[in-house]
Amino acid sequence: MKTPTIVSQEEWNAAREALLVEEKAMTRARDALAANRRRMPSMAVEKEYSFEGPNGRASLDDLFEGRRQLIVYRAFYEPGITTARGPYPERGCVGCSMVADQVAHPAHLNERDTTLVFVSRAQQADIQDLKQRMGWEPIPWYTLSDDFDSDFDVGDWHGTNAFIRHDGQIFRTYFIDSRGDEHMGSTWSYLDITALGRQEEWEDSPEGHPQTPPYQWWNYHDAYGTGD
User: What is the DSSP letter of 183?
Assistant: First the structure.
């Protein structure tokens, strides 16, 4: 490995300031992209879908858990998925496992009226065992039982779909896959692919979107709703 150029503190600061200009431009571009996502047309979900959860059968509407928005990640954990690290049910897709490891505590998304769930074709007993062993207990994880994965572009590959409920109807609002999933995991990255965004006043959002001052809603993940 070639040793980087060694410079003085003043030269290092100047180089860092030059890169900071590019980083701020990227941040503004990312904010503009998220603003465009909030203006994407929606697609009505007309079919009924069924999942198996820890409490039994569940509909797509049930996956919202009473909230307005839903984010669904399709994780490849199922019979037939074998990796160099071991076979099912001990192991699943290594990349999907890395995604699960990066997921921030869902309470922050929940506070923004948004639910995150994972779905796989594994049986619930195996999913619950894997969640406990890997420390993924906070993530709601359901078993696929129909064509949901193929209907929403995640039949043959991982991917993240975003949905919203309005007047009793569910709509698909956005979808990412491939390297787009690399950026998922933080509260901000998930909110930035939703129709309502972060719901903070500084955002460029369509008229009527819910918005509150930044920092005001932030809290410890175990203190939401307690007034702390």
Answer: G
Question: What distance lies between CA 221 and its chain's CA centroid?
Answer: 17
pTM for this predicted structure:
0.94
Which strands, in side-by-side order, build the sheet including 114-120? 43-44, 169-177, 159-166, 69-74, 114-120, 141-144, 50-53, 56-59
Closest CA to 165 of 57, 60, 50, 35: 60
CB atoms within 10 A of CB 148: 21
Over residues 60-118, the pLDDT tens digits come to 999 999 999 999 999 999 988 766 667 888 888 888 999 999 999 999 999 999 999 99
Distance (Å) of CA 125 to CA 28, 99, 141, 153, 204: 44, 21, 11, 26, 44
pLDDT tens digits along 134-166: 999 999 999 999 999 999 999 988 999 999 999
